[in-house]
# Entry
Amino acid sequence: MKFLIGFCDYFFYRACCFYKQHPIVYADFAFGASTAVGVTHLFHILSLCVLWSILAKCECNVLYPVVTAILLMIYYDIHVYTVERYNRVAKKYKKEKHRKIKGWGVVIYIIISMLIPFVLCYLFRDEVNLYIPDWLRYFNLSDSRLNL
# Structure
């Protein structure tokens, strides 16, 4: 668990460095970086939902992982990944070695995190049974369930 927390801290640090170099994207670099961490966790939660749908052979509501991830992102933005946390992590990684290789590792981690749910849905398209709740059909383009 300590390794995962350390990796998320490093990911937050690298995202903060990116948003500090590109201030047009977000004026508050810590907010943008914590949102980036939350979005990658959204894709992890969605991957777990897809896996649950495959292994348990049951229908899974897409709304639950999305709402959970949004609440997690709000929690990250307010309490966990703040400017104070950035200052602590920046001291830790101030003189890091292999900065470019680790940076590309973070980029590859983001890409893989975003691709895993879609790859799982493509590979197991017959077993995956995700759906959008019926009360959201007014916001959906079709009235049918999301069958992937």
